[in-house]
């Protein structure tokens, strides 16, 4: 398999463009679906969390611009655990679902819901990156956690099929 090039050096531009375009015209908020869908796409294709390490615009922005501002503290261990990650993933899904439900079929309201979710997670990421290490958000990121869950499910499913084939032989 060919080595995949990292785009972490410049992908932050995509997040900034998303934010600026969405402020100028909220309908650009729909582009947030790409930001949310791309990691899931990679995970479903069997690429695991490659989006996090090679492509993620938020991780790129946090890593590039918070290096000099960060206090470089270690995150508390409870924040790194599965309970926290599951809680944050559930909270973000709930917040997003309620926002989309209330938006109905109004394109601008849906766009604003996505823009708000992306902005809130960025602000949280900046806050965490200053207090802890620059990419601390990446440790608890709901999209990263979701792709990890997909990867783990696929791995368990593949191992289960292999075990069944071994028993059948």
TrEMBL record:
Q: What is the lineage of its organism?
A: Bacteria, Bacillati, Bacillota, Clostridia, Peptostreptococcales
Name this polypeptide is given? 4Fe-4S binding domain-containing protein
Can the keyword Transmembrane be found in this entry's annotation? Answer: yes
Give the residue spans that cross the bilayer: 12-41, 87-104, 110-132
Q: Which keywords does UniProt give here?
A: Membrane, Transmembrane, Transmembrane helix
Organism from which the protein derives:
Geosporobacter subterraneus DSM 17957
């Amino acid at each position: 398999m060919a080595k995949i090039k990292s785009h972490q050096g410049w992908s932050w531009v995509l997040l900034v463009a998303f934010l600026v375009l969405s402020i100028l015209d909220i309908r650009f908020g729909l582009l947030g679906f790409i930001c949310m869908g791309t990691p899931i796409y990679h995970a479903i294709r069997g690429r695991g969390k490659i989006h996090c390490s090679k492509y993620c615009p938020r991780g790129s922005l946090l890593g590039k611009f918070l290096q000099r501002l960060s206090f470089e503290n270690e995150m508390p261990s409870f924040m790194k655990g599965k309970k926290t990650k599951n809680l944050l993933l559930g909270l973000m899904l709930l917040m997003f679902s309620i926002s989309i439900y209330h938006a109905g079929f109004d394109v601008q309201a849906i766009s604003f819901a996505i823009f708000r979710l992306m902005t809130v997670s960025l602000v949280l990421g900046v806050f965490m990156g200053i207090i802890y290490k620059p990419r601390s958000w990446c440790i608890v990121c709901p999209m990263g956690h979701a792709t990890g869950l997909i990867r783990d499910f696929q791995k368990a499913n593949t191992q289960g099929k292999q075990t069944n084939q071994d028993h059948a032989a």
